[in-house]
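Entry details:
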Amino acid sequence: MSEPAIPLTQSEAFERTCKTLGLPVKRIEAVEGSCLVQSRKLPVIGSFNLISRGPVLRPGASGEALMRRIGADIQGPVIINAPDGYGGPGLKVVGGAELAIIDLVDPEVMRARLHQNWRNQLTKSEAAPLRVIDQPLDAKKHAWFLEAEQAQQRSRKYRAYPPGFLLAYAAANKGQARLFTAMQGQTPAAAMLVLRHGRMATYQAGVTTPAGREHCAHNLLLWTMMKDLQRRGVEQLDLGRADLSDGLRRFKLRTGATLHTLPGTYLTRSGRLRRAPRSHQTRAIHTKPA
């Protein structure tokens, strides 16, 4: 029986990274599947347990026994950023995010799935004076990227993993944090960081320049990344949230990605964990030309 593709925050790669940084995590295993639980502390809430996009069931397994096992093994408040089918009886504090996920198959099939506008931009970028290099993330070599992404977080007012976490991921998982860079001569025009974790990978961050925008460099980078991951046996690429802006939504979904709507984030106590009825469906979205 094959193992499922596992989201980043439930993966062994993420677990290794947390342990490298000294962050408290606990892996709960059962016949039905597994769950990675993080321990956190916030000023108002205090100490609590975080289950992000878990637990992960093995194919054909029921989640009831696993949820009881998790409830018995941890103590105190639990925040569940729930995957499909796990809502639980707790208080829903945040609505479900929409994620864009690409199934990585034969490149010819993937190219045929591209929206016409996206494919036209890719064709333009393939004819541009750009070359793509793929390297393991490196603190010195890629300081420019880490600084640019931090500046982008400040200017666009969003939060993502800090450089320290990304570099710890690279150190704990050799060769699995990859930076794809579109070079114009000897100058980076744009770059994208992907984190590989087993049969799944997660797009983590991207930056660009005026030259990168002019030549549609992000189309070329993402397409190169998709082909490389598929060649290495990765089956799914998680592009992250598609519900933050219309432009980001179009760019991600026009890759042929499928939209996955998560149930939401719930606050409960460990003894009350259970599997909720499956009510949120995954669906394909076809966007209209801009």
